[in-house]
């Protein structure tokens, strides 16, 4: 079974109405041999904030060293987002395998008049996946209610209810007390129960938890009951959070008192997030205790700081301030208005798209005052008519309202209206957020196509079945571009590509399935000559609207990178904007490794002495090095983390000492520091370092601030763990596409933090959470990372991938040189190596070959 078939089957289940009870999902789990029995679970329910609390809980537990599953809903751009293991979403292959296994059973149930719903089956899929991947614990965001929710088919080790308000009254009850009782019935005997409820809801959940035999942990958010010293001593919250305000465009700080004291950074802005953070810390604390795992304060601090949650008050740009938020009811709109009040801006321009069953009048009234608004329609049957939304906004007092249609076109209209000091806010539905976000994060990658075999390989990761590959492989010639689009747009783009003489292939949901899926993005490969693809862009521009204007611009950007053979391609594309003093601007630069560690995998201990370090740099300079990368902590598999002060003591004296080498002191050779710690990066920059090389890809928000303030070049690497977890076994559908997408997300965070994109270098992270086969795939296709608009670094020196071709750890020099030549030929702008002289020669040969090919091409052109 192929993924698109599995997704279509699952989305078709949305036609079945929700029924209270867990009997159906329990029957499916029994059919799967009860995978829930082998996994400890955490359940988090609530009217608002449960998704944020679940994400923060998962992040904290991961930082404590656990393998953690996370199940949330809805998804933004792909079904697989709902199920994550250690931060990575479920693969499409795993989804297809699951559906192939359960489909006959589900069909039999439906034929017997007992069909399962989409949410029930996807919940079972998540449980099955967590058991298959053998996670240490899995965090489940409860769907609707609690007692009868599909997630309640498991027996949790800890539970939580964030808060309770009137919602889904037709299903959950007519009063806060009734809804609180339904939600609180996730409580289990002896399993800790955490809540930030107050008032009547608190009384009810305490009563229900007591009846269930669950010990209650009460927490409070900023200004909540029980957060003052005047409360009764025996009823003070175990964790009391105070919102300390915004510290950047995307981050805020909260202070905790009670069982855990301190101030913590969170990548979620808004006073309401204080209570969510308190719930998360309390749940993580109680869960870690149940699993007999130590929860150090560092785990809490790092886990909270790294718990990004896309689409929930997500800042995309700062000039104008551009925010996406899924607030879809009056209460959420009021919370959103309070959060937006923390920002300084002149005029507000709204983009509003909502479902037809929402209270548009009250929601519009609750939103902040706006100078203009554009309404839109997400791609779902349930989406409200933009004309109806326009009437609601005018009734709320907004004079300038335009009834639009397409979400991305509406957002573009609002941005065009805004001045740099204004704010653009897209709101009303997570489905609208998903469409807008997909357009902003879309990446067009070019695939290398030399022959029919290359064409087949280009089509395969896009999910094209063998018959489709056979039909289209001969038509994919010269240039092949891959991207993901909403299904109807992908079909339109494919038709336009064929109309200009090119070819296109997509595998996705049919029209009926798309209406059920809504925001599911499908892969598309468009191919042809440069002239044909330029003609395609012209046709899209002439069409004017319909959500393809941005696609035309993205395709045009990919075509503008008519890369010459040889290194330096990505950097050369932006040469006009790039600092000309950077060595990677117009050629492949060589970065030499200078580890001042006793335990690095290849050169540990070789340069620990300052005299040895200086001598090593002198040899590198003589051999033609462009950048020296100083490292004070090994990230090899199983390496022990180095304390900040120890790492500073290693790298700062080294950086200062090597300034005595003339080429370094003059700036002709740059100095990079290989670190994931903001304090080390700051100290290294003060000591004379020019570049930050972060193996975690700017995961730490404080590192983003350090780099932005220094305005220095930064290497953003893709990794799953640092140091590398030797027991990790990540799964990929297409390793290149997924690493590109992950790096795109990190670049978005860098942009919002104020880091100049022209100073960012991307590194696919060979050896970090990839198999040798995947490493070779990344090496072979490293040119595709030019789609990110940044120079590309390849760090392959002496790594374990060469063990797959029979080279032991002490016999990888020649294999590394071969890899360098291939990387330089295929578009790498920097190669990071231990043996500078040998790899400098490989880079120079690749450049000479590339130059000869260009000259030959120019001569042939002159002859014509």
Automatic annotation (TrEMBL):
Stretches assigned to the Pterin-binding domain: 588-844
InterPro entries reported for this sequence: DHP_synth-like (IPR045031), DHP_synth_dom (IPR006390), Dihydropteroate_synth-like_sf (IPR011005), Folylpolyglutamate_synth (IPR001645), Mur-like_cat_sf (IPR036565), Mur_ligase_C (IPR004101), Mur_ligase_C_dom_sf (IPR036615), Mur_ligase_cen (IPR013221)
- As given in the record, the signal peptide range reads none
Q: Does the keyword Nucleotide-binding apply?
A: yes
Record has rRNA-binding as a keyword? no
GO biological process assignments: folic acid biosynthetic process; tetrahydrofolate biosynthetic process
Tell me the domain of life.
Archaea
Q: Which cofactors are named for this entry?
A: Mg(2+)
Q: A Pfam family in this protein?
A: Mur_ligase_C
Ranges for the region named Disordered are 215-235
What is the recorded name of this protein?
A: Probable bifunctional folylpolyglutamate synthase/dihydropteroate synthase
């Amino acid at each position: 079974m192929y993924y698109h078939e599995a997704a279509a089957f699952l989305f078709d289940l949305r036609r079945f109405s929700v029924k209270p009870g867990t009997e159906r999902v329990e029957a499916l789990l029994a059919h799967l041999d009860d995978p829930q029995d082998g996994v400890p679970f955490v359940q988090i329910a609530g009217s608002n904030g449960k998704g944020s609390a679940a994400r923060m809980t998962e992040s904290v537990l991961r930082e404590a060293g656990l393998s953690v599953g996370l199940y949330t809903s809805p998804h933004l751009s792909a079904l697989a987002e709902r199920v994550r293991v250690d931060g990575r979403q479920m693969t499409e292959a795993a989804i297809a395998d699951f559906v192939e296994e359960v489909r006959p059973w589900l069909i039999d149930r439906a034929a017997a008049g007992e069909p399962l719903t989409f949410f029930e089956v996807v919940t079972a899929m998540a449980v099955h996946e967590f058991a298959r991947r053998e996670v240490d614990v899995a965090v489940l965001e409860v769907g609707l209610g609690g007692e009868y929710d599909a997630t309640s088919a498991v027996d949790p080790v800890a539970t939580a209810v964030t808060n309770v308000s009137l919602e889904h009254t037709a299903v959950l009850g007519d009063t806060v007390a009734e809804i609180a009782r339904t939600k609180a019935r996730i409580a289990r005997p002896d399993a800790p129960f955490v809540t930030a409820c107050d008032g009547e809801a608190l009384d009810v959940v305490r009563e229900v938890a007591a009846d269930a035999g669950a010990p209650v942990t009460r927490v409070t958010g900023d200004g909540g009951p029980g957060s003052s010293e005047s409360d009764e001593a025996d009823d003070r919250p175990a964790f009391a959070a105070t919102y300390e305000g915004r510290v950047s465009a995307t981050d805020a700080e909260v202070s905790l008192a009670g069982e855990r004291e301190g101030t913590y950074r969170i990548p979620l802005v808004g006073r309401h997030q204080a209570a969510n953070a308190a719930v998360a810390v309390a749940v993580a604390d109680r869960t870690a205790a149940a699993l007999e795992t130590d929860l150090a304060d560092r785990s809490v601090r790092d886990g909270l700081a790294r718990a990004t949650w896309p689409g929930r008050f997500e800042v995309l740009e700062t000039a104008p301030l551009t925010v996406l938020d899924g607030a879809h009811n009056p209460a959420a709109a009021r919370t959103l208005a309070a959060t937006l009040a923390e920002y300084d801006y002149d005029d507000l321009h709204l983009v509003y798209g909502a479902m037809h069953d929402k209270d548009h009048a009250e929601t519009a009234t609750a939103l902040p005052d706006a100078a203009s608004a554009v309404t839109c329609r997400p791609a779902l049957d349930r989406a409200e008519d933009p004309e109806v939304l326009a009437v609601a906004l005018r009734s709320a007092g907004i004079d300038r309202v335009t009834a639009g249609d397409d979400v991305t076109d509406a957002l573009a209209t609002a941005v065009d209206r805004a001045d740099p000091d204004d704010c653009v806010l897209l709101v009303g539905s997570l489905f609208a957020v998903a469409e807008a976000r997909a357009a902003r994060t879309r990446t067009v990658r070019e695939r290398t196509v030399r022959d029919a075999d290359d064409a087949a390989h280009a089509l395969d990761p896009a999910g094209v079945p063998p018959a489709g590959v056979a039909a289209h492989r001969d038509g994919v010639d010269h240039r092949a571009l891959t991207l993901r689009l909403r299904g109807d747009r992908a079909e339109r783009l494919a038709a336009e590509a064929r109309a200009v003489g090119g070819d296109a292939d997509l595998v996705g949901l049919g029209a009926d399935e798309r209406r059920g899926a809504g925001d599911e993005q499908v892969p598309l490969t468009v191919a042809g000559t440069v002239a044909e693809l330029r003609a395609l862009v012209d046709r899209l521009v002439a069409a004017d609207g319909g959500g393809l204007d941005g696609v035309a611009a993205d395709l045009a950007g990919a075509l503008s990178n008519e890369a010459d053979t040889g290194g330096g391609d990505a950097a050369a594309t932006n040469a006009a904007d790039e600092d000309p003093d950077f060595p990677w601007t117009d050629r492949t630069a060589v970065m030499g490794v200078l580890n001042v560690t006793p335990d690095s995998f290849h050169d540990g201990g070789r340069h620990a002495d300052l005299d040895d370090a200086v001598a090593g740099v002198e040899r590198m300079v003589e051999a033609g090095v462009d950048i020296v990368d100083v490292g004070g902590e090994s990230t090899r598999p199983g390496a022990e983390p180095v304390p900040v002060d120890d790492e500073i003591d290693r790298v700062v004296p080294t950086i200062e000492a090597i300034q005595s080498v003339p080429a370094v002191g003059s700036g002709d050779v740059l100095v990079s520091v290989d670190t994931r710690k903001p304090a080390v990066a700051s100290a290294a920059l003060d000591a004379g370092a020019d570049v930050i090389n972060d193996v975690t890809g700017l995961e730490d928000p404080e590192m983003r601030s350090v780099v932005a303030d220094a305005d220095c070049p930064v290497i953003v690497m893709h990794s799953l763990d640092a140091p590398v977890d030797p027991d990790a076994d990540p799964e990929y559908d297409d390793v290149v596409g997924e690493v590109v997408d992950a790096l795109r997300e990190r670049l978005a965070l860098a942009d919002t933090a104020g880091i100049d994109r022209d100073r960012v270098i991307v590194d696919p992270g060979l050896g970090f959470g990839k198999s040798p086969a995947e490493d070779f795939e990344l090496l072979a296709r490293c040119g595709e990372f030019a789609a990110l608009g940044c120079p590309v670094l390849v760090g392959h020196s002496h790594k374990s991938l060469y063990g797959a071709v029979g080279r032991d750890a002490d016999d990888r020099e020649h294999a590394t040189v071969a890899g360098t030549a291939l990387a330089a030929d295929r578009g790498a702008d920097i190669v990071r190596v231990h043996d500078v002289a040998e790899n400098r020669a490989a880079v120079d040969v690749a450049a000479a070959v590339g130059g000869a090919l260009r000259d030959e091409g120019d001569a042939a052109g002159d002859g014509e």
